[in-house]
Design a protein that fits this description.
It is a single chain. This protein has 714 residues and is an alpha/beta fold. It contains 22 helices and 26 strands. The N and C termini lie far apart (63 Å).
């Protein structure tokens, strides 16, 4: 109405579409549909990128095929702009404030398809000169997608495709209508626009060979591609492009959103005023007593945990008054994998027929999502949901008898490291003046980066469990926010360097530098004396028990795989770290059995560990002594000093260039994405050296790193 262009963004495309459709009649009535756009942070970043620099993909495509770049043509837009962020506290997360939008150019034609299938057929064997002389390689060069000066990119594509075919790493996905849809990190959905580059090529080929329905020969040809990375554009930079910024969330109150997050909203999003609006409904009728052991229960092991959850479901289905009716129960788990394990367990047998599942997969279609949400509040219904549906999902009660029976009860089976997430999950019940209740049934192995051993948790007084965990959460909150700021700062610096290159007059050189930076080879040069691998392994309290056992298995698998392969001499040192760091093994030849590791449990700090690694590289065996050096850094939790650790590794990387690499492995759900900033190759940060490993997958992650370290040992 005041001639502003408005972007309303949300973390979820489904929630964004829902809200747009709800307001669309009003926009049409006022004649402002061309002034307002709804979307996600990803779609907003894409639009801003195009408006600021033109169609970057098309410009890159023309440059790669001709060797010269056309001038960037920005798309003019209204300079009077307003940004509205729904669930604004979500923006203060690793996926968004600490994340980036990474555009990819996917080059496709029949010749590229044939080349990718040829490399897939080789798998175990690889000879780059032979592939370069093969007809499929020459056909791609003749197809016009790459000029002679850009043949290096095709060589790089061949090596990456072979690497992906050899490792065959799998990402969480489904296939629908012949298209792979990936579970998108930080979002509540599976998306077809998401790609893992050559690993995606491999997954299409695996699905095709497995006879996956609807994945026809023609559809396979449409999906295999040669991928070109076009940079990183910081989400944290988006707010600076708007004249006014508004946000809304149900967790703005300081008791729900930590002061560090308030500070980010003020200093980074430039939110100047905070307004707290009371509910239009009566005071909440939610029944929640955090100091009562009936509302916060602990279990010493998984079997007991599941048994307690089933007992809690049975208890909470019972009406709170004498009434011939049942309540409904909504149980939140961390993810779909936990739900599947619980659903298939013998403990849940008696309720299985009354249960439904709400996850990013079961609710990937709007009609399925609406049906599951609607049925959640039916009498006697049990819904098992992933944590992503603890926010922005409105579970309305349509049955008066169910509401009189006590309404919807919510059970949370894990302790949230983020208070606002807990508040949102709790808020799925007792909505809009309805009855409702909430409880927690927790495993003593808390996870999510909490440095508390199961013995410690089980030793607390029953009435103080929630307060003890809340204090731990508050303690790690400041550390996590500082690491998040450092991560966002690194993204912003990268963003600024890229935009300067794109804005430079005569952009051919800038575009060439950008493409080479994000697509050049990052192989490790072999020192004349071989390779020195420094393991930095987390022995903090959260690693106690099964996680430590899994780490030992992964370490031994890495060692055995390396010892079994021919190649340059390999030596290993081990730094074990918690609050402090210590060298437990130094320059051990990687032969025979792996050395034993004995933990000392305490907190989590990264900086002491990388300082020890730096000493081992500088003083014992590194490039100055004829050894290529590799750091393999593994942790399951966040640390306040991660930015200092990253700076140490960056200095080593810049000093030794292709004679140094650092790999980071985030283990479990508590591992922070800030570990990405500690992965380096060829003197610069390289996220391809960062890996995540769910519980049960750490061995495969370590074996993948072992394969990747030395090209001569494949």
């Amino acid at each position: 109405l005041y001639d502003f262009s408005v972007d309303a963004v949300c973390y979820s495309s489904m929630l964004s579409s829902r809200d747009y459709n709800d307001f669309k009649p009003m926009f049409e009535a006022f004649g402002i549909t061309d002034r307002i756009r709804y979307g996600t942070f990803d779609t907003l970043a894409e639009k801003i990128l195009t408006e600021s620099h033109g169609d970057v993909r098309q410009v890159a495509k023309e440059y790669l095929s001709t060797g010269s770049a056309p001038s960037m043509r920005a798309v003019s837009g209204n300079t009077k702009r307003v940004l509205i962020v729904d669930e604004v506290d979500v923006f203060c997360s690793e996926a968004f404030f600490g994340g980036s939008y990474n555009p990819i150019l996917a080059l496709k034609n029949g010749a590229i398809t044939a080349l990718m299938r040829h490399i897939w057929s080789l798998k175990a064997s690889f000879n780059l000169p032979a592939i370069k002389s093969h007809e499929t390689f020459r056909a791609v060069l003749s197809s016009g997608v790459l000029s002679a000066k850009n043949e290096w990119l095709l060589e790089r594509a061949v090596m990456e495709m072979h690497d992906a075919a050899r490792k065959m790493h799998t990402h969480d996905h489904v296939v629908r209508n012949g298209t792979i849809l990936y579970k998108i990190p930080g979002r509540d959905e599976y998306g077809g626009d998401w790609t893992y580059n050559y690993e995606t090529n491999v997954e299409y080929l695996k699905e095709f060979e497995a006879g996956t329905p609807d994945l026809t020969e023609e559809r396979l040809k449409n999906h295999l591609a040669l991928y070109v990375r076009l940079g990183e554009f910081s989400f944290a930079r988006l707010p600076s492009m708007f004249q006014f910024i508004l946000g809304v969330t149900g967790t703005l109150d300081p008791s729900r959103l930590p002061p560090q997050m308030h500070n980010i909203l003020k200093s980074e999003l430039h939110i100047e005023k905070f307004t707290y609006c009371p509910s239009m409904y009566h005071d909440s009728k939610r029944d929640w007593k955090p100091g009562d052991e009936a509302y916060v229960q602990r279990a010493e092991n998984v079997d007991k945990h599941w048994n307690l959850i089933v007992d809690e479901i049975g208890k909470r289905l019972t009406p709170i008054i004498n009434l011939q009716a049942q309540r409904s129960v909504l149980v939140f788990f961390r993810d779909a994998k936990e739900i599947e394990q619980f659903l298939d367990s013998s403990y849940f047998t008696k309720y299985r027929n009354e249960a439904q599942v709400l996850t990013e997969l079961t609710a990937s279609l709007p009609e399925d999502r609406e049906r599951i949400i609607r049925e959640t509040t039916r009498q006697g219904k049990i819904t098992l949901a992933s944590r992503m549906y603890g926010r922005g999902t409105d579970f309305k009660i349509y049955d008066d008898r169910m509401e009189k029976a006590g309404g919807l009860h919510v059970i949370q089976t894990f302790f949230s490291p983020d208070l606002s997430e807990e508040v949102q999950i709790m808020g799925r019940c007792a909505r809009q003046g309805d009855e409702g209740s909430y409880s927690q049934v927790l495993l003593s192995k808390i996870g999510d980066g909490f440095d508390a051993t199961p013995e410690t948790v089980m030793g607390w007084d029953a009435s103080g469990v929630y307060s003890e965990l809340s204090q731990l959460r508050a303690n790690i909150g400041g550390s996590a926010v500082q690491a998040l700021r450092e991560m966002a700062k690194a993204r912003e610096l990268e963003h600024d360097a890229i935009t300067r290159a794109l804005n430079a007059p005569g952009s051919t050189d800038g575009l060439d530098a950008l493409i080479r930076r994000y697509n050049a080879a990052s192989g490790l040069a072999i020192g004349p004396n071989g390779i020195h691998i420094v393991f930095c392994l987390d022995e903090s309290g959260s690693m106690k028990g099964e996680p430590w056992s899994e780490l030992i298995t992964a370490f031994e698998a890495f060692w055995a795989q390396t010892a079994a392969n021919a190649g340059p001499p390999m030596h290993a040192s081990v730094v074990q770290f918690a609050t402090n760091a210590r060298v437990t093994h130094q320059m051990r030849p990687m032969q025979g059995s792996a050395p034993s590791l004995t933990p000392k449990w305490s907190g989590t700090r990264f900086h002491p560990a990388v300082l020890e690694a730096q000493q081992l590289i500088d003083k014992v065996a590194g490039p100055e002594n004829g050894y290529a050096a590799v750091v393999v850094f593994m942790s399951d939790g966040a640390a306040a000093d991660s930015s200092r650790a990253a700076k140490v590794l960056a200095a080593i990387a810049q000093q030794h260039l292709d004679l140094f690499q650092s790999y980071t492995v985030g283990f479990g759900r508590g591992a922070p994405s800030t570990l990405k900033t500690m992965a380096f190759a060829n003197g610069q940060q390289d996220e391809t050296k960062y890996r995540t490993a769910a519980v049960g997958d750490l061995t495969e992650a370590f074996k993948a790193v072992a394969k990747d370290i030395s090209p001569g040992r494949h």
